[in-house]
Amino acid sequence: MSVQSYLIILFATFSLTVVLTLVIKNYLISRSITVIPDQRSSHKKPKPQGGGISIVISLVISLSVLFHLELIARDQFLFFLIPGLIVAFIGLLDDFQGIKPSLRLFFHFISAFLGLYLIGNFPDISLLGYQLELGLLGFSLGLIYIVWMVNLYNFMDGIDGLASLEALFVLVSFSIISYLVLNDFSFSFILLVISSTVLGFLVFNFPNSQILMGDVGSYFLGLIISLISIYTSLELPELFWSWLILLGIFLVDSTYTLIRRIFLKKKFHLPHSNHAYQKLARVLSSHSKTSIYIFAINLFWLCPLAFLVAFNKIDGFLGTVVAYLPLIFLINYLEAGTREKQEL
């Protein structure tokens, strides 16, 4: 295929997502299906949610076309499609009906298990020059990692554009790494296709959101990003550290906040607005500024370190430690996970 053909596919994917998001937004508004903000919400006005279903539908259609054109392998097609549709369906139910946390978590683990099974396994860990073969322990760690990614992505989807910009940053960055390090143009292009669907949704989600991604979109993105990170690290385990670096802000903020709330004996599984990014948004009185600042940290701090690890210029573990230390300091400074006034 020519370069022009690839560009046409990317533009068509982007356009499809734009149209789907617009249709869904107008439908939900016409039926008055909106989310009413409460004291824990970062938004001030009622808005329709569940817009992330446009990302799911557009990507399923796009991947089906790529599979028909033999531009995506069967195993890649399946590990995207099957687990992704399961978590998307659960997210859709959660957006518009609500389901029990235990049932939701059960299906997250089912999706994680299917994803790992279809991929083959969790990669070995490259640690300070040593290769650690994890075996069954690796599979168990992989399940926990995927389920945590699904949920943390949902936790971090609280202000305009943040979850979409994070997905774009991570996927485009690793598309470049995949092309330069793995010499895999095909998979690099797949990552750009996924990015195109997210970009199409971003049109209505940033700088001022007209529709929210909802659980359906955040669960879906969290799952496929975690599965892609595992899949691409099977050949070169050190690349998993690059993924952890690229995802640094989401991983550190969500994990730090969870641990601190557990330490403070709060009901950590309940909705709250104590994440560092939410506190920063209140300090700045702006969702868009917060999302842009976080994107800048991604681009100018985390991205170079991830590339240095990918090109074996620094050790993956050490690179991750260097990447995370300033993030931990910043998130601690913002007092993530601490009690809000209404909770005291």
Walkthrough of the structure:
- The chain is mainly α.
- The chain has one domain.
- The protein is built from 13 helices and two strands; from the N terminus they run H-H-H-H-E-E-H-H-H-H-H-H-H-H-H.
- It has helices at 3-30, 53-68, 74-96, 101-119, 136-155, 162-180, 185-202, 214-233, 239-246, 248-263, 276-284, 287-310, 316-333, and strands at 125-127, 130-132.
- A two-stranded antiparallel ribbon has the order 1-2.
- Helix 5 runs antiparallel to helix 8 and helix 6 (162-180) runs antiparallel to helix 7.
- The longest helix has 28 residues, at 3-30.
- It starts with a helix and ends in an 11-residue tail after the last helix.
- The mean pLDDT is 90.
What's the N-to-C terminus distance? 62 Å
- The pLDDT mean sits at 90
Q: What's the number of extended β-strand segments?
A: 2
By DSSP (H or I, 4+ residues per run), the number of helices equals 13
Using the alpha-carbon principal axes, give the shape.
globular
The fraction of residues assigned to DSSP E strands is under 5%
Q: Output the strand order for the largest sheet.
A: 1-2
What is the chains' assembly state?
single chain
* Domain count: 1
Helix fraction, binned, reads: 55-70%
Could you tell me the radius of gyration in angstroms? 19 Å
Query: Low-confidence segments, ≥5 residues, pLDDT <50?
Result: none
